[in-house]
Design brief:
22 strands; 4 domains; NAD; alpha/beta; binds 1,4-dihydronicotinamide adenine dinucleotide; binds 2-oxoglutaric acid; EC 1.1.1.95; elongated; 7-stranded parallel beta sheet; Rossmann fold; 60s Ribosomal Protein L30, Chain: A
């Protein structure tokens, strides 16, 4: 059955075409009230949104099938990321698609403020001709301070340099060399506030950037300086900004984004001269909307059809060629996680996934996540998948270790899973032959070569003659057909082990009979 995608915000129509071409079933239902969305979200594998749809924990609780949310845009503040991650839902955005458009709006704001374009327009429309009132400033030769030189900030830098501005920038995650390459001088924030004639903000809203521009910062800015925020509401203290404008300390301010959108009618900024506002249209051009809609549709299709993760904000992304390399090992990891869970000691406290051989060159995280998800599913009622597994393990106090090993071994690649818990450890290891033949090659100290699938009986016994014959007779008498059998013993012959693939699960009474056979130490039935 084709995966189903719900488009719940106003996305450019090209997105729907891309999704349909990829063989997905698409419904476009824009502007649904939260209750209506909650009522239908359970039918969808993917949700495509802009910023209007609020993807809350409550909505996600109802999203039993949802695997991925695609945000056609940058900021994902309308999605409860923690809740999505706990429920195993990948959240993707589309960085870069709207950068030029947003930077152009910031530039438009700067030009509008420095030449009083909006107020002069209103004045002319009101029948006035106030040439003196609207004398402005040239930008050439002035200093622009850019806070955040990521995708958008760096486009603005480029445009400002073309206008012969001097640009200083602050971004703690960009080196001085990278800044110099862009043609900007990297400065500390204090210097930026003090030097800039114009400040433009291009950072996400985080704990560090909330109220970044408050009354103190505004006071440190040059008299007559301009402030532009096309990033997120909440980065600027709007009340303090209104005071700084009203007092004449700032020469102008422009906001595309507000703490509350739309701002209330009595918002103190709305009545002020020198204040310019747009209704969060930073990304609203035909070009940007087409780019982000197509990007999100392609990303959703790649994830739903091929498991390729691109631009995810809550899990590491993997390019197609890496996916191809690790894909054959994911089913093996699933089996190893499941087996480890069934052999694990009580109260597991640590799961180690060790990768050796050729596979050690690939990223371990997705292999560990798949192993962990299969391991946790045996212990928990709540659904767990590769996305939610690390968060769920953390919540349960289970440490996860990912190890690349240089240990020599007999296989091209080997994945070993070790679980530690109260009173013991369990080790299992496996490899893949050819493209897809998963083989279990180690269970605790025993070397074997077994197919890890279906109903399995594990039997540990003394290394004595007759055990296997007795086993076969007992299972045969109970109507349990043995499909494959893999035998092993410890090097010192102190114990032997049989891994039997059987066509059906033995009844508890049959297991009890086997347990009573001569030389049998332990027997258990599992399913992989
Ligand atoms: N008005 C609108 O319609 C739109 C607004 N945005 C907003 O613009 C913001 C920036 O977008 P992009 O440039 O695409 O993101 P980006 O991730 O490419 O760049 C953000 C930059 O901010 C820097 N940064 C993070 N914390 C910082 C801090 N405390 N101080 C200084 N720098 C810090 C990062 O190192 C990064 O270089 C987004 O987070 C989004 O909220 C994005 C698109 C449209
Ligand atoms: O989708 C929109 O209209 C808002 C764009 C935006 O704020 C973003 O991409 O972060």
């Amino acid at each position: 059955m084709a995966a189903r995608v719900l488009v719940s915000d106003d996305l450019s129509p090209e997105a729907v075409a891309v999704l349909k071409q990829a063989g997905l079933e698409v419904d476009v239902k824009v502007g649904l009230k939260p209750d209506a969305l909650e009522a239908i979200i359970g039918d969808y594998d993917a949700l495509a949104v802009r910023s209007a749809t609020k993807v809350t924990a409550k909505l996600l609780e109802k999203a039993s099938r949802l695997r991925v949310i695609g945000r056609a845009g940058v900021g994902v503040d309308n999605v409860d990321l923690d809740a999505a991650t706990r429920r195993g839902v990948v959240v993707m955005n589309t960085p870069g698609g709207s950068s030029v458009t947003v930077a152009e709006l910031a530039l438009a704001m700067i030009l509008a403020l420095s030449r009083h374009v909006p107020a002069a327009t209103a004045s002319v429309k009101a029948g006035k001709w106030e040439k003196k009132r609207f004398q402005g400033h040239e930008l050439a030769g002035k200093t622009l301070g850019v806070v955040g030189i990521g995708n958008i900030g760096s486009v603005l830098v480029d445009r400002a340099l073309a206008m012969k501005m001097r640009v200083v920038a602050y971004d703690p995650f960009i080196s001085a060399e990278a800044a110099a390459k862009l043609g900007v001088e990297r400065v500390e924030l204090d210097a930026l506030w003090a030097q800039a004639d114009v400040v433009s903000l291009h950072v996400p809203l985080t704990e560090q950037t909330r109220n970044l521009v408050d009354a103190k910062v505004l006071a440190r800015m040059k008299k007559g300086a301009l402030l532009v925020n096309c990033a997120r509401g909440g980065i600027v203290d709007e009340r303090a900004l209104a005071d700084a404008l009203a007092s004449g300390h700032l020469g102008g301010a422009a906001l595309d984004v507000f703490e509350q959108e739309p701002p209330p009618a009595d918002h103190p900024l709305l009545g002020l001269d020198g204040f310019v506002a747009t209704p969060h249209i930073g990304a609203s051009t035909e070009e940007a909307q087409s780019a982000v809609a197509v990007a999100v549709a392609e990303q959703l299709a790649a994830y739903l059809n091929h498991g390729v993760v691109k631009n995810a904000v809550n899990v590491p992304g993997l390019p197609r060629e890496i996916m191809d390399q690790i894909a054959p090992f994911l089913p093996l990891c699933e089996k190893l996680g499941s087996l480890a869970a069934q052999l694990a000691p009580q109260g597991p406290s640590e799961v180690t996934v060790e990768v050796a051989g050729e596979l050690a060159a690939a990223p371990i995280r997705p292999l560990a996540a798949r192993t962990l998800a299969a391991f946790l599913r045996h212990h928990l009622e709540t659904p767990v998948n590769d996305v939610s597994a690390p968060a769920v393990a953390k919540e349960r106090g289970i440490a996860v270790r990912e190890v690349r090993s240089a240990e020599p071994h007999d296989y091209a690649s080997l994945v070993t899973v070790t679980v530690r818990g109260q009173g013991g450890e369990a080790h299992v290891a496996g490899t893949v032959y050819g493209k897809r033949e998963a083989r279990l090659v180690r269970v605790d100290g025993f070397r074997l070569e077994a197919v890890p699938e279906g109903h399995v009986i594990l039997c540990e016994n003394d290394d004595a003659p007759g055990v296997v014959g007795n086993l076969g007779t007992a299972l045969g008498a109970a109507g349990v057909n043995i499909a494959r059998i893999s035998l092993s013993r410890l090097d010192d012959h102190s114990r032997a082990f049989a891994f039997l693939n059987v066509d059906s699960a033995p009844a508890p009474g049959v297991l009890e009979q086997v347990r009573r056979l001569p030389h049998v130490r332990t027997v258990r039935s599992i399913h992989l």
